[in-house]
Amino acid sequence: MDTWRNRANPGASSLKSSVSWAQAERRKSDLRREPAKEEPQRILVVDDNLDNVEIIEARLTSRGYLIESAANGEEALRRIHEAPPHLVLLDVMMPLLDGFEVSRRIKRDPSLPFIPVILVTARGETEDKVEGLDAGADDYLTKPINFPELEARVRSMLRIKRLQDELDRNNRQLEDVNRQLTRLSITDGLTGLFNHRHAHELLREEYERCRRSGESMAVIMFDLDQFKELNDTHGHPTGDAILSDTARILLKTAREIDMIGRYGGEEFIAILPGADEDSAARFAERVRATVESHIFRDEGREIRMTISAGVAASQGTELPHPDELIRQADRALYEAKETGRNQAIRSSDLPAGKG
Q1: Could you tell me the CA-to-CA distances from 164 to 135, 172, 236, 269 in Å, in that order?
Q2: 203 and 342 housed in the same domain
Q3: 247, 195, 221: which is closest to 312 by C-alpha?
C-alpha cells in the first residue's frame, strides 16, 4: 500500500522534505533576527562606606547590572583607567579625593570614553548640586536613596551612554570615510602617487614656504620613453604595470620630504624642497639609471624601459613662480626627448632661446 501511494503521488516525499527545509530556514531567519545578548552593564560604585556599597550592589545586581566598587577617589580613577565602566555612582564626601574632583578628572581625561557620572550625597542644597554639575557630573542623587528613583536615573544615564557611544562610533566611521575620500581625491588611482591637481597644490604651497624661508626648491619632470609603442605592442594592462613599477622606483629614490606625483599619462613630477639644481640633477640621474637597469615583468614577459627627465630649480636667491618652474622643467624634458631620450637635462643647460 505504501509503495502504491508513493507511485500515485511521487511528489509526496519531496513535498514533506520541502516543508521541513522551509521550517528550518524560517527558524534560521528567526534566530538571525533575535538580538544578540548584550554583556552586563558595569557600574562602578564609589563610596568609603561599605554598608552603602553593599546595599546599592544588592539592589542593582538584582536588576542584572554588574557591580564593581572602589573605597576612595584614587582607587576609582585607577579602576576607571584599567577598565572604563558604563556608569559611575560617586559619593561626594570621601577621603583623599572628594567626588567633585574625581568627576572633574574623569570628564577632563581625553583618553576615556563618555562615562556618565551620578553624584550621590546627603548634601542636597542647590549650591551643592550646582557644584557637582559644574564638576562634570551628569546627574545628582541625594541620600537617603530612593531606590526606584535610583534605578530610573541609572536607566536614563545608561540610555544616554548607549546613544553617545553610538554617536561616537558613527563619527569615527564618518571620519574614516572622510579620510578615504580625501586620499582618493588627492591620489592617482593606478600608482598611488599624488594626482595632477594635488601636485600643483603642493607645488604652490612649497613655493610660498620657500619664498618666506629663502630656501631653494627644484622640480623634475619625468617621462617614460616610447610608452605609446609599448601600449600598442603589449596592451594597456602591461603599460599600467610599468607605470606602477616606475612609481615605486620614484618613491624609493625620493627623500621623505620629497613629493612625487603622476602628472598625466606616462609623465611624473617630483617636487624637491630645499634642493638646488645639482642635487635635483643627481636625483633625476638616479631615477634614470634605476629605470634603465630595472626589468619590468608582466604576465611572464620581461620588458626594458628608459626614462627622460627635465630639471629646473631656483638659482641663488631667485625663486621662479611655480608655473615658470614647471615650464622650465618641461622644456628641459622636451630637449631630453628630442636629443636621444634616456637622459636628464637641466634647464640651465638648454641652448640659448630654449630655456
Answers
A1: 19, 12, 50, 46
A2: yes
A3: 221
User: Given 266, 277, 324, 338, which residue is catalytic?
Assistant: 266
**Cell numbers standing for residue 30:** 528567526
Max Cα separation, the chain?
109
Check whether residue 112 and residue 150 sit in a common domain. yes
Q: How far apart are CA 321 and CA 319, in angstroms?
A: 7
Measured distance CA(83)–CA(97) in Å, rounded:
20
| Beta-carbon contacts of residue 6 (< 8 Å; ≥ 6 apart) | 12, 13
Helix (H), strand (E) at residue 6: helix 2-8
The whole-angstrom distance between residue 88's C-alpha and the CA centroid of its chain comes to 31
Q: What CATH number did the domain enclosing 158 receive? A: 3.40.50.2300
- Cell 542584572 locates to 64
Grid cell listed for 120: 550621590
Q: Are 43 and 67 in contact (CB under 8 A)?
A: yes
pTM: 0.64
Cell numbers of 38, please?
548584550
208 annotated active-site:
no
List pLDDT tens digits, range 268-295. Answer: 999 999 999 999 999 999 999 999 999 9
Of 133, 154, 170, which residue constitutes the final position of a domain? 170
Q: How far is CA 50 from CA 46, 70, 193, 350, in A?
A: 10, 10, 63, 88
